[in-house]
Amino acid sequence: MLLLTKLILAHLLGDFVFQPAKWVEKKEIKKYRAWQLYAHAIIHGLLIILLLQDFNFWVPTLIAVSHLVIDAVKLVFQKDITKRSWFMIDQVLHLGVILSVWYYIETPSLDPNIVNSPNVLLFITAIVFITTPASIIIKTFVSQWTTALSKPNPNDPTIRIPSTSQIDTTSLQNAGKIIGILERLFVFTFILTNHWEAIGFLIAAKSVFRFGDLKESKDLKLTEYVLIGTLLSFGIAIATGLLIKTAL
Fold first, then answer.
1. How far apart are CA 237 and CA 61, in angstroms?
2. What are phi and psi of 156, to 5 degrees?
3. Which residues are CB-contacts of 177 (< 8 A; sequence separation ≥ 6)?
4. How far apart are CA 46 and CA 14, in angstroms?
5. How far apart are the C-alpha atoms of 75 and 30, rounded to whole Å?
6. What pLDDT is stored for residue 159 in this prediction?
7. How far is CA 183 from the centre of its chain?
8. How far from 207 is each of 172, 204, 244, CA to CA, in Å?
9. pLDDT for position 160
C-alpha cells in the first residue's frame, strides 16, 4: 500500500497543490497549445520520481504521459456547462491509471469472497439505506404537512409561508437532500467510532445555520416542519448506527 499511497500523493500534489489557477485558465484558453499543459505533466513525473526515489523511469513516464493525454482530451471536449462532469471523468481516469500501475507492480492478492462477508454486506446495506432510501422515507413522512406551509398564518394573515416547491426554487437544487444524506453519514460514522459529542456539535452547527431562516419566516409551522425533518434524519442515522454497531 506504500506504493499506492505515494502515487496518490503525487497526483494530489501535482493536480491541486502545484498547479496555479493561472495555469488552469491558460490551458482552458489555449488547450493543447498551452505550454502549461506539458509543464503540468512533467511536474507529475518529477513528483513520482521524488517520492518513489526509484530511477526506473517507466512508471513516472507512463503516468506523466497518460496524464497529459487525459488532460488534453478533457480540454478539447469540455464545455462551460460540462466542466463539472469532465472534472469527475478526468479524476476517475487518472485514478484508474494509478491503480493499474500499482496493481501491475505489486499484484496484490484480492479476496473475491470479501463481498460475501456478513459484516461487509451489513455495512454496505446500512450505508445505502441512510442515503437515498432514508431521504425518500423522510420526504414521504413530512409530505402530510406540506400543504399547511402554504396557508396564511392565523396570527398574522399578511404572512404567507411559501410551499416547499416554492422554497426549493429559491435554494440550491437538491441541496436539502444532499445535506440530509451528508449529515446522516456523519452521524453514522460518529456512532461507529464512539464520538457522540460530535453528533451534538453537528446538531448545534445546523441549528445555527437554520436559525436565520426560521427567524425570518415568523411562522411556527415552518419551524416545526424543519424540526420534524431534522429529528427524523438524525433519528434514522442514530438508530441505524446503533443497530449496525450491535450486529457487528
1. 46
2. -150, 90
3. 135
4. 9
5. 9
6. 44
7. 12
8. 19, 5, 27
9. 46
Other CB atoms within a 10 A radius of the CB of residue 245 amount to 14
Q: What's at 25, amino acid-wise?
A: E
Q: What is the grid cell recorded at 31?
A: 488547450
Backbone angles phi, psi at 17, to 5 degrees: -90, -50
The SS3 call for residue 153 is: strand
Q: Contact at 8 Å (CB) between 150 and 160?
A: yes
pLDDT of residue 107: 85
Averaged pLDDT, groups of 10, the chain, 248 residues long? 93 95 94 95 95 86 96 94 94 96 86 74 92 90 72 49 48 77 94 91 78 57 78 93 91
For residues 107 and 219, what is the distance between their CA atoms, to the nearest angstrom?
62
Name which of 42, 91, 90, 87 is nearest 63 in CA terms.
Answer: 42
Nearest to 122 by CA among 207, 192, 30: 192
The pLDDT of residue 13 is 96
Secondary-structure breakdown of the chain: helix, strand, coil percentages, each rounded to the nearest 5: 80, 5, 15
Q: Where are the beta strands (DSSP E) in the chain?
A: 152-153, 156-160
Q: State the pLDDT at residue 40.
A: 97
The DSSP call for residue 57 is T
Cα gap 239→43, rounded to integer Å = 48
Nine-digit cell string for 106: 505489486
| Contact of 153 with 161, CB cutoff 8 Å | yes
Sequence ranges of the domains in the chain? 2-106, 116-247
Query: What are 83's three cell numbers?
Result: 466542466
Amino acid at 137: I
Helix (H) or strand (E) run with residue 138 in it = helix 132-142
